Amino acid sequence: MDITKDIQPMTTFRNHSAEIMQHLKDTKRPVILTVNGKAAAVVQDAKAYQHLLDLAAEASAAEASAKASRT
User: Could you tell me which residues come within 8 angstroms of residue 48 by beta carbon, excluding any fewer than 6 positions away?
Assistant: First the structure.
């Protein structure tokens, strides 16, 4: 994570959404949006998010399989 580019105020996202969306696509890193200096939301490229969901599903399946083999 590059805090100078990956953490942005909500107003910057609102005013420069096209550039931030291109940044998401190029880097595959999420952007944390802040309101009043506090993290409020995370925006992520759809393909990177799907990859994260796939990894979580694989981990869940592996955990279930390991749990089943112990019993």
Answer: 24, 28, 29, 30
This prediction has a pTM of 0.72
Contacts of range 22-29, beta carbons closer than 8 Å, 24 or more positions apart: 24/48, 29/1, 29/2
Structure tokens at 69: 């083999």
How far apart (Å, rounded) are the C-alpha atoms in residues 36 and 9? 8
**Amino acid, res. 15:** N
SS3 call for 9: strand
Q: What angle do CA 56, 18, 1 make, to 5 degrees?
A: 45
CB 31 within 8 A of CB 23: yes
Give per-residue pLDDT as tens, 8-36.
999 999 999 999 999 998 988 999 999 99
Residue 33 pLDDT: 97
